[in-house]
Amino acid sequence: MPRQNSTGGKERLGGITKAGDRYLRRLLVIGATGLIRYKRKNVPGGLAWVTGLLAKKPVPLVTVALANKMARIAWAILCRGEIYREAAATS
Fold it and tell me: Is the residue at 61 inside a domain?
């Protein structure tokens, strides 16, 4: 599970550690890399979070951040036994 240290309502999310399955970690980073390469071609659509982060941070850092977020989503889905539902548009 990705590390999380939260207190007082402020989330402090850790990065992807080297513990666990190397192959799964590699797949998450490769998937995040593909998504970012797709997004950098100015394709319209969601992922405003990624676009905002790419404006401020280097691509490798955003890649690992996105892989970390995908790992958290996958972990939550597995723990709850649910299916993935894309978040509703806020606009």
Answer: yes
